[in-house]
Amino acid sequence: MTDPTIFGKIIRREIPADIVYEDEHLIAFRDIAPQAPVHVLFVPKLHVATLNDLQADRAEVVGRLAHAAAAYAKREGFAENGYRIVMNCNGDGGQTVFQIHLHLLAGAQLGRFGTPR
Ligand code: 5GP
């Protein structure tokens, strides 16, 4: 299925984004509203709306996102200092774009997370 979300539009170059990495499986671009000095989104080209929709035989989709994020951190030189990867799912998780994506946050000591609003 074609990705109907804003991220699908970025993948298809229908809207611009600051793309930092792309391969046949995924794309990575800077978040439009960064929550840390480094905030990059890793998005698969296969459309999967939420983590709940990920089939077991497609689990490598998420592995590729994590591997690409770690590779980016190493290339950019902050892997040793550290970083955080986050995937939000549905309302309580704070998901707003319904195409799975991994947030890579880095560039500062990050605060704790997971507290209710
Ligand atoms: P979620 O809340 O679904 O986990 O994360 C969606 C993220 O996408 C948010 O951090 C939001 O700032 C980002 N975002 C939403 N629309 C756009 C856009 O048009 N371009 C970019 N680069 N990021 C976006």
Question: What brief labels describe this structure?
Answer:
117 residues; HIT family, subunit A; 23% helix; binds guanosine-5'-monophosphate
Estimated helix fraction = 10-25%
CATH topology: HIT family, subunit A
Rounded to an integer in angstroms, the radius of gyration calculated over CA atoms is: 14 Å
Instruction: Give the averaged pLDDT, no decimals.
Output: 96
How many helices does DSSP assign? 3
Based on helices, strands and strand pairing, what is the structural class? alpha+beta
- Top CATH class: Alpha Beta
Portion in strands: 15-25%
What does this structure look like?
This protein is α+β, with helices and mostly antiparallel strands and 117 residues long. The protein has one domain: HIT-like (HIT family, subunit A, 2-Layer Sandwich), CATH 3.30.428. 23% of the residues lie in helices and 21% in strands. It has helices spanning 6-11, 60-76, 90-93, and strands at 19-22, 26-30, 38-44, 83-86, 102-106. A hairpin with a 3-residue loop joins β1 (19-22) and β2. The longest helix has 17 residues, at 60-76. It is globular, with a radius of gyration of 14 Å. Guanosine-5'-monophosphate is lined by residues 6, 17, 29-33, 41, 88, 94-97.
Topology:
Elements: H1 6-11, E1 19-22, E2 26-30, E3 38-44, H2 60-76, E4 83-86, H3 90-93, E5 102-106
Antiparallel strand pairs: 1-2, 2-3, 3-5, 4-5
Bound molecules: guanosine-5'-monophosphate (5GP).
